[in-house]
Amino acid sequence: MARPLIRPGTALAAAVLTLFVAACGAANVTPSPSLGALVASSVSPSAAASDQPASTDAPTDAPADTATDAPAEATSSPVDPCSLITVAEANAVTGVKTLPPEAAGDPPTRCVWATPTSGAVGQVEIDVGDGAKKTYDLDLTVLKHTFTPVPGLGDEGYAEDGTVFFRKGDTWVAIHIVRLDDSKLWMPKLKSLAKTVADRI
Questions:
Q1: Tell me, what's the pLDDT at 78?
Q2: Is 136 part of a structural domain of the chain?
Q3: Domain of 163?
Q4: What whole-number percentage of the chain has pLDDT above 70?
Q5: Three-state SS for 146?
Q6: What is the distance between the alpha carbons of residues 133 and 172, in angstroms, rounded to a whole number?
């Protein structure tokens, strides 16, 4: 059987018509939304926000200042050195009428009942705290002064020529007397004064 004869012009027209129909069909098709867009549109803003990773900041129910939760360190009130010895006691141990007490430091850690401007020399000095301990350590380990224990004076007490040191609890005290005569004459009075001072701390 003989094949039908197709003219070249007819074949070209058929091809152009096919392309035209395909283009029109594609123009009339509305693209469907992607799967990701459908999922995103179905999630409410509040739900999306809840899916965000947790913040690395401290939890909102934690205290703003954690340091305030720590117990405060116990601190003892500073001892006023001038309140530990009366003028009458200073006069009695020196044998002279001393000048009014003068405090030194802020807060005060030292007090001096200075020698009078005329007459015999006599002065009382007291140091309370770190200064007293440093003086004791210096005299003992560096200057190699001779110390003797003083029984019943605070938690520990020691005496050297002209000075008595003692510790009561965490507080160190040094009481020093300036005189021009033999210290053996008034050291017993100084030790007695130191025990009175220890009872006041």
A1: 74
A2: yes
A3: 81-199
A4: 62
A5: coil
A6: 6
Instruction: Please give the Cα distance from 174 to 149 (Å, whole number).
Output: 14
Tens-digit pLDDT profile for residues 165-177: 999 999 999 999 9
DSSP state of 67: G
Q: Is the pTM of this model over 0.70?
A: no
Phi-psi region of 17 (alpha: psi -120 to 50; beta: other; left: phi over 0): alpha
Report the number of distinct structural domains present in the chain. Answer: 1
- 3-state secondary structure at position 171: strand
Closest to 181 (Cα-Cα) out of 195, 161, 196: 161
| Local structure of residue 86 (DSSP, 8 states) | -
Is 162 inside a domain boundary? yes
The verdict on residue 174 lying in a domain is: yes
> Could you report the per-residue pLDDT of 114-166, keeping only the tens digit for each?
999 999 999 999 999 999 999 999 999 999 999 999 999 999 999 999 999 99
Identify whether the C-beta of residue 115 lies closer than 8 Å to the C-beta of residue 122.
yes
Q: What is the CATH number of the domain that holds 116?
A: 3.40.1000
Alpha carbons 165 and 85: distance in angstroms, whole number:
15
Strand partners, 159: 148, 164
Q: How far is CA 162 from CA 23, 45, 51, 187, in A?
A: 119, 85, 80, 7
Q: Which tokens sit at 161?
A: 């020529």
> Residue 150: inside a domain, yes or no?
yes
Tokens standing for 154? 């605070």
